[in-house]
Design goal:
Number of strands: 10
Bound molecules: 5'-O-[(R)-(carboxyoxy)(hydroxy)phosphoryl]adenosine, zinc ion
Shape: globular
Order of helices and strands: EEEHHEHEHEEEHHHEHEHHH
Structural class: alpha/beta
Radius of gyration: 20 Å
Oligomer: single chain
Helix content: 40-55%
Length: 335
């Protein structure tokens, strides 16, 4: 089954073709970051206009690269939410028009389900597994009992992990989006300096998270140590912050995987690109013999359309057999 995926939920216009949910034939992304950088965050109106200007050209280029025409495509998968409404409407309407014109079934996809499915693109991963999903807007632990049968075990009670990264990066005057810049700064710290600062792990019940207290702790530290030391120790503080986030996510995933007795762990979402998170998860789960760990390559952690096309395949193949794709139900409930 050849699925054309379309993703326009935020500031990336993305189109891809994926075969049978796992083989990416072509994936193109036009990032708007260079534009939104000027304002330090996404301007929704600008984002929608840029999607509109880009989407048709990108669909043509993606099909060409895969050596296909729209007639060869079996289904069209398009992100329906969550995201910026104006941006979503551009991609969704283009998907709908293609579907009508060419008589191809349209599969609306929840963006978060797409992030999880990114893990099928480079591996032979099979359900069941536990997924730690951390993006700019969401932080969740999901037990994937089947390809479309899932249970959200825990989530953030306030800020998402990516949001915390971006806000702390802003305190450090790093460019938008802050996460990758903070990560780079933290990696410049020498091993023997690494423990000068330490933030406490936020304590929250069950498998839930909280990152707003941690963000405030960084702000208080900035006020306490003053501008000069703050500037001098910024990399050390970035390092302490991301180690704290990594330990917080890891501790909860260990507990959650024990609870559901699943030893297959996957990471997903833009924050899964973080070097400390990848390192701590590898350190723990690769050392524990009976666990398996899958982390998408960097290009499939952040937003892309191959993950949406993959999700389209799994939704089409397994969705009708299961009523438990909570993401899809959520989407339809709001549609
Ligand atoms: O999944 P994603 O591309 O978009 C959403 O669905 O939100 O995630 C974007 C988030 C942003 O907050 C960005 O700062 C963060 O992922 N991010 C990172 C890294 N790369 C991207 N955060 C920490 N370290 C990184 N290397
Ligand atoms: Zn995303």
């Amino acid at each position: 089954m050849l699925v054309l995926g379309i993703e326009t939920s935020c500031d990336e216009t993305a189109v891809a073709v994926v075969e049978d949910g796992r083989k990416c034939l072509s994936s193109k992304i036009f990032s708007q970051i260079f534009k939104h950088k000027e304002w330090g965050g996404v301007i929704p109106e600008v984002a929608s206009r840029m999607h509109l200007e880009t989407i048709n050209r990108l669909i043509g280029e993606t099909l060409k690269e895969a050596n296909l025409t729209i007639q060869d495509i079996d289904r069209i998968a398009v992100t329906q939410g969550p995201g910026l409404i104006g941006s979503l409407m551009i991609g969704f309407n283009v998907g709908k028009i293609l579907s009508w014109l060419h008589h191809k079934p349209l599969i609306p996809i929840n963006h978060l389900y797409g992030h999880i499915c990114a893990n099928f693109l480079e591996t032979e991963l099979e359900a069941p597994f536990v997924c730690m999903l951390a993006s700019g807007g969401h932080t969740q632990i999901i037990a994937m009992h089947d390809y479309t049968n899932m249970q959200i075990m825990g989530e953030t009670v306030d800020d998402a992990a990516g949001e915390a990264f971006d806000k702390v990066a802003r305190l450090m005057n790093l460019p938008y989006p802050g996460g990758p810049h903070l990560d780079k700064l933290a990696q410049s710290v020498a091993a023997n300096d690494a423990n000068k600062y330490k933030f406490p792990i936020p304590r929250v019940n069950d498998f839930n998270f909280s990152f707003s207290g941690l963000k405030t702790a960084v702000l208080r530290l900035k006020e306490k140590i003053g501008t000069e030391i703050w500037e001098q120790d910024k990399a050390l503080i970035a390092h302490a912050f991301q180690e704290c986030v990594a330990r917080t996510l890891l501790d909860k995933v260990i507990l959650a995987s024990e609870q559901v007795n699943l030893k297959s762990i996957v990471l997903a979402g833009g924050v899964a690109a973080n070097s400390a998170i990848r390192a701590r998860f590898k350190e723990y789960f690769c050392a524990e013999k009976d666990y398996s760990l899958i982390i998408p390559s960097l290009k499939f952690c952040t937003d892309n359309a191959a993950m949406i096309a993959s999700a389209g395949y799994f939704q089409a193949e397994y969705g009708s057999r299961s009523q438990a794709n909570v993401y899809q139900q959520d989407v339809f409930a709001r549609a």
